Amino acid sequence: MKIKSLLVMLAIIQVISLGNALACHGKETPEDKTGKVEKGTGEGLKDKITYFDGFNFSIKGRYHQEKNYQRLPAKFEGKVRPVVWDLSTASSGVCINFRTNSPIIKAKWELLDVYKPRNMTQISANGLDLYCHVNGKWQYVGSGIPRNEIENEAELISDMDTTYKEFRLHLPLYNGIKDIEIGIEEGCTIEK
Q: What gap in Å lies between CA 96 and CA 32, rounded to an integer?
């Protein structure tokens, strides 16, 4: 009897999770006229992607405003222990927030180092995770799977409707990011 109840509960959780993921495809967030970055150019033709530098958006999880994705500012190098400085160059905890009405989101990113962990996946160590704000909560919607050692490109999500949605892109846990660009369909808008 307990096993049957547990299986029913797991099925309900899966249905709720699927509903939240599908809601991201059609959930409109309130309009925010501040922080507009740029509008893509073109007629919105499929497979035409415009990329925007990650520094155009709100970056969280850093203790500075420098143009890098490290957790500590450059002035701390040499002032903290070398092991602390090395750990601070990983982008763990750093994320990029943005809003878009694009039906597709892609990313291009360049890693700082070649990092091949033995005890975890390449996605957690070197990849990206994309979340969408749905019903007051952040819902996982896709990952950027690293295919190369340094320079990578991935489609994070596609086939969404064109209502504005709020996204959070989490950077790798154990590697640093030298550069990242977020891609949207031409003709769509992306904002802070």
A: 17
